[in-house]
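Section 5.1 Outputs to date
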Amino acid sequence: MTTSGQRRDAGSVSVMIAVLVPALLLVLALVVDGSARLRAIARADALAAEAARAANTAVDTRGPTVGIDTATAARAASDYLARAGHPGQVTILGPRAVRVTVTLTEPAPIGLLGGSVQSTGTALAELGVGTRDGGLP
């Protein structure tokens, strides 16, 4: 004993589910791949910053002014990147500044935005000797 109005509604929920479930799965895949991209960017920035800090440990105190021993600094940053397993470029900008650029490529978890995630991080480290306020002497 059903009326014709009740028959027209039969199955309408399953059509809505058939449309919404793929849309929700697509949104979930975008969130997972997007967060993987953000993690790769943060990791590349952190690797570059740590390599630049490693380069700044090569302090040359033999001269009248304190500066960076450029050969040792470049080697220290390159060694750090090699141990981390990622390629990078070390540039000595002057007697107290080092810039490190790291390129990171990781596989994407789902691959909706591409098969891999590539990001580049750059860090600049300046040697400040005997300062408490961050200014360079």
